[in-house]
Amino acid sequence: MKNDILEAIYAGIDQLNRQNPDAKPVRKALDTALYGSSSDLDSLGLINLVVAVEQNVEQKLKVPITLVDDRALSQEVSPFSTVQALADYVEGLIREKQNG
Predict the structure, then answer these.
(1) Which of 31, 45, 77, 96 could disulfide-link to 41, CB 3.0 to 4.6 Å?
(2) pTM summary value
(3) Quick check: 94 and 57 in contact, CB under 8 A?
(4) CA angle, 62 as apex, 42 and 66 as ends, to 5°?
(5) How far is Cα 41 from Cα 47, in angstroms, rounded to an integer?
């Protein structure tokens, strides 16, 4: 499942990079910062990426998820800090849906 999640996130990054050809491209790597001072994404870019990832996860894994909610925003470490953190968060959401 982890590879499918990463593919969904990387596909979202590809979409974002195509939408913003003049911006610095977002790297497809686990340590890529998506949020915070070390990120190259602005708030709109992050929102676009989140929406793309939600759509890609639903298409690829057939599990609808919502990434931005009170739970995500109250995490001590933001699930949007890096690609790895986002992948871990998505995996947790999917496991909850499958077990719930």
Answers:
(1) 45
(2) 0.94
(3) yes
(4) 40
(5) 10
Residue in the structure block whose two tokens are 């929102």: 47
Contacts of 45 (CB under 8 A, 6+ apart): 16, 20, 23, 26
Match domain 2-99 to its CATH number in 3.30.930.10, 1.10.1200.10, 3.30.450.20, 3.40.50.970.
Answer: 1.10.1200.10
- Coil, strand, or helix at residue 41? coil
Give the number of other Cβ atoms within 10 Å of residue 5's Cβ: 22
How much of the chain, in percent, has pLDDT values that exceed 90? Answer: 84
At residue 93, the 3 state secondary structure works out as: helix
Residue range 18-46, pLDDT digits in tens: 999 998 999 999 999 999 899 989 999 99
At residue 33, φ and ψ (nearest 5 deg) are -75, 130
